Amino acid sequence: MNDRLEDVAALFDGGRLTLARQLTGLRKNALAVQIQKTPTAVAAYENGSKRPAASTVAALALALDVNPAFFITSPSNLPATTATPHFRSLRSTSQISRDQAHAYGCMAVYIATAIERHVQFPERNLPQHPVAGDSSAGTGPEEAARLLRKEWELPSGPVGHLIRLVENHGCLVVFSPLDNATVDAYSFDTAQRPVILLNPLKDDYYRQRFDVAHEIGHLVMHLDAEPGSRVVEDQAHRFAAELLMPADEIANELPHKADWRTLSQLKQRWNVSLQALLYRARTLEIMKDVTYRNAMTTVSTRGWRRREPGPMPMLEQPSLLPRAVELLHSENQADELTLANECQAPLRLFRTITSRTPLTEAT
Questions:
Q1: Per-residue CA distances from 182 to 86, 98, 185 (Å)
Q2: Known PROSITE patterns for this protein (predicted)?
Q3: Minimal CA–CA distance to 339: which of 138, 171, 107?
Q4: Mapping DSSP to helix (H, G, I), strand (E, B) and coil, where does residue 102 land?
Q5: How would you classify residue 223: left for phi > 0, otherwise alpha for psi between -120 and 50, otherwise beta?
Q6: pLDDT by residue (tens digit) across 9-18?
């Protein structure tokens, strides 16, 4: 064991320490207390200006609940070049939570890269249609959505299984861990694959689909835009609305008033929420602003913001990573532990990232 720790110390990668610390949700000073070092020393380990001793490597691994080998860079965990993640509200999301969420997404990319050595994934095919994030004028978001529907050769009418659609075009979709569930759905791009992370507590088929469409919008339009602004988020909403409810197809179906029976029928047909339909009717100027506001007041009064009436289909589930792990296991090529070790991920984290559904507890 001592020899291995000495080897890790010699090959120590400060970036992997940063990743492990962020995954745990610790600040540098909190980690420093746990390993009985100074915050300056931790910063030096992370920026590569100083290497930790073997005993410090052991203390870091214990404090961060990882195998010491986690701190070594290998071909399966090479740093992923990432754009800044798009979080819904920067004001309500702490920096530590954002760092933890981003680190988790990076781990998803590392795991996918390791699995892809054994299983061929779809090639990434996510066209870029940049829209300036400093202006709400124009129809850029709607045009970007129309172009994507054409490039992905989507038929007219409602979009089918949305998560499967984006996975078939080379995107990763995973659920966030429960301990980071305060962060809503978010996304970012990497040199390997785009990543969409979904909130594990949002148990709503319709809202989840709009979340996915919203994040596709960020990935298509906003790679160079400053995340979190009201304009950028509004553009992603407009993109999602056009992707899921094309104006030239749904405009004649939307009511001018809050006809709940008609809206309920449209909800089932287009696989979107009542609130999304009301939003679409207002933005297409089919429904007047005062009518929309009154309808949303009714939605709030009746408690529909949390749960709308009517049948609730099962959540769409990611399948790209889960199916790959199942395939390798069924063919006796590799089990979960082998794959987790290959990408140097803690087993519980590996299972969370490769799960079809949000895990209710660490396993």
A1: 15, 10, 10
A2: HTH_CROC1
A3: 107
A4: helix
A5: alpha
A6: 999 999 999 9
Q: Of 254, 110, 96, 257, which is closest to residue 192 (Cα–Cα)?
A: 110
59-109: per-residue pLDDT in tens? 999 999 999 999 987 655 554 556 677 776 655 678 888 888 889 988 999
Q: Are 148 and 192 in contact (CB under 8 A)?
A: no
**Nearby residues of 40 by Cβ (< 8 Å), 6 or more positions away:** none
Structural domain spans, the chain: 1-73, 75-245+315-363
Q: Which of 338, 359, 356, 357 is nearest to 347 (CA)?
A: 338
Q: Does domain 1-73 have CATH number 1.10.260.40?
A: yes
Cα–Cα distance for residue pair 345/338, rounded to 1 Å: 10
- Which residue is listed with tokens 């532990």? 337
Q: At what angle do helices 14-24 and 39-47 cross, to 10 degrees?
A: 120
Say if strands 195-198 and 172-175 run parallel, antiparallel, or are unpaired: parallel
Distance (Å, whole) CA 279 – CA 214 = 14
